[in-house]
Amino acid sequence: MMAETTLAVSVWYTLLLCLLAGVAVLLTLKTKSIASGHGAGGVNLPPGPRPLPVMGNLHSLLGALPHHAMRALARRYGDVVLLRLGHVPTVVVSSPEAAREVLRTHDAVVSNRPLYVTADILSYGGQNIAFAPSGSPHWKELRRLCATELLSPRRVLSFRPIREEEAASLVRSIATAAASSSSPAVVNVSERVKVLMNDVLMRCAVGDRCPMRDEYIAALDEALRLLAGFNLVDLFPRSRLAGALGAGALRAAREVHDRVHRIVQAIIHDHASKAANNDGEGSGDDDDDDILDVLLRLQRDGGLETVLTTEVVCAVLFDVFAAGSETTATTTIWAMSELAKNPSVMQRAQSEVRRVLQGKTRVAEADIQGRRLPYLQAVIRETLRLHPPLPLILPRSCAEPITIMGHDVPAGTTVFVNAWAIGRDERWWPDAGEFKPERFDGDGDGEGMVDFSGGDFRFLPGGGGRRMCPGLTFGMANIEMALVSLLYHFDWELPGGADPGELDMDEAYGITARRKTDLVLKATPFVCPHELVNSFPCTFS
Ligand code: HEM
After folding, report:
1. Distance (Å, rounded) from C-alpha 259 to C-alpha 273?
2. Dist CA 468 CA 463 (whole Å)
3. Is residue 381 lining ligand 1, measured as CB closer than 6 Å?
4. Which residue minimizes the CA distance to atom 38 of ligand 1?
5. Which CATH architecture has domain 58-274+289-525?
6. DSSP character for 114?
7. Model ipTM?
8. 218-259 residue pLDDT tens
9. Of ligand 1's atoms, which has the minimum distance to the CA of residue 205?
10. Closest-lying ligand 1 atom to the alpha carbon of residue 142
11. Residue of 469, 473, 481 to mutate, ligand 1, most atoms within 8 A of C-beta
């Protein structure tokens, strides 16, 4: 349903763009070419395609996903390309050197996000972590809280039982489905993994007891769709016509925002009354606290650089859920897709997992911690190289004029780092299009664990610099637990004897690069989950 709506919007939008292009050509308005790379007054602008009047270079992005179209432009014009998307001057960088200049050399100047009209509504006017101005005490305090409280290694560890329980429940449901059919179960892996990650994130964020969970998830899904950008009101913020034509997106953003806000307020109210019943002590044990418990405690205690109003609490919860669930589900689904497409890699990953967990009937995190599964970790990294869930990381905005690779970039320009294109570039990754986890495997013939904490600019799944993702440790723990559980308990193959090499790997349009079609695989139980050991026969090695 949502995919259909998105498609309808894109078709409508494409038609509108074509109309605008037609009008522009008919009027034959003269425009200044920026392809030469020289702007007025001897400014050395980055090269790029010639913009049309009104729409700028939007037509250059038509017919392909934005990160694909941007890679094609980089191949033609170079690693730093200037575009005008509607009214918005935009630079796209597509090499590690250029990314280093954005994320390290000019980090302080390029660390704000452009606050599009829809993002402004959905982020409570930039009061959340992802859209707050980077120099502000508010953002600094929220980032500090992420590091020390909300997403700290200790907090991530404290969510271990939630990860284990939810992964076990996924395994149980697949095993039960397999038991009820005479042949291996056909499993919609995409749907199951999305539910798993939604449930894990929801429990970590607001606890078990959220009666409005499904409604909240649906509203957040809609919010993510709107946040994908490329709405008329975002591209033409100064145009009254675009304002009128794009009023629907604005209305939808306000409506979703109100819905999310109402639900979170009710959840907060529920938490607050439970805390009151516990004499204000939350759960009583800091390690049992969910993220909302922590935020409410900090709100009560005060003494922060910023005031945690209810709006700020809602905005931070929005961040945690919206940023955390989609990225981890998308990565897990792509990892399973690549493994299904590359059976020898699947076999090697499964052998490692089954050797380490031999004799167990359920996956406990304590058994897989540390470097016990180096090949599986290499599989996750290789997945993130080929399928970074945020292919253009998140947009940055240039506060002052800067120079990138010798090109002048004016203040106010939106900057995209095409992490997807960099990860697939033969110049830095031999056999770039192939799924070869060995390149990340310190024990194999690869170069070992490439740093993915933003220090190696060939590999930027979590972005870099001061705005780098604060949730990577949390995300990786969720992804690893899901993959280990799926690989340990089941053998997987494509249904109907389909050729693995033919598996559809197309991406859908959106803020994240998810699969276009659901991943559907055949699951044959290999190790029975604990609760079902005596219920039906499983294959044991
Ligand atoms: C594999 C999992 C994940 C990936 C690949 C990922 C990727 C990213 C990327 C590329 C950015 C933009 C960074 C930049 O502009 O340089 C980002 C920002 C962010 N991520 Fe993640 N993320 C993941 C998981 C999570 C999780 C689990 C959470 C929280 C529960 C989270 C919370 C955030 C937040 C709050 C920001 C905004 C940071 C800021 O603007 O200061 N992420 N993430």
Report:
1. 22
2. 5
3. no
4. 130
5. Orthogonal Bundle (1.10)
6. P
7. 0.99
8. 888 888 878 776 678 888 877 888 888 888 888 999 999 999
9. 30
10. 41
11. 469
